[in-house]
Amino acid sequence: MQFNWRQTVSPEDWPLLLEADPSKSMIETYLKQSELLEVRQEGHLIGLLVLKQIEAGISEIMNLSVTPLFQTRGIGRQLIEQAIAHSKERNDQKIIVATGTTSVGPLLLYQKCGFRVEAVERDYFTKYYREKIIENDVYLQDRLLLSQEFKN
After folding, report:
1. What local confidence, expressed as pLDDT, does residue 128 receive?
2. Which listed site, 64, 77, 85, 124, has its alpha carbon 20 to 30 Å from 112?
3. Which range of residues forms the domain containing residue 57?
4. Which long-range contacts (CB under 8 A, 24 or more apart) does 50-56 make?
């Protein structure tokens, strides 16, 4: 597997981006100010992480997706670990990520990577998304903000 940071978005990225966030308009609000970490196997894109520096010293994982065939193989964890290392290299003090309260798999993965729940944003998905989102047979309404602080 090959991991590579890049600045530009390509058409092949969109299926993965939309897998993690069903709103193309929401994705477009952060892509231009973000870096993308791709993972390829035999030239095929199999995973993508979008990282944005939201203010001095704080980066946010905006989007993370691995193609279904390659899920549960530790690729998501490797993407997160590389994002954490990248944030530390640029002297960030903190990295954050937000996920839906019904996103059980991602929530567990982030916690396994050292993130802790910082806040609940009630009704986030009902306010900012036009379509109703059903995940794991539950109506998604609230968003969890998780963070990991770095010690200097």
Report:
1. 84
2. 124
3. 2-149
4. 50/17, 51/83, 51/86, 51/87, 53/90, 53/92, 54/96
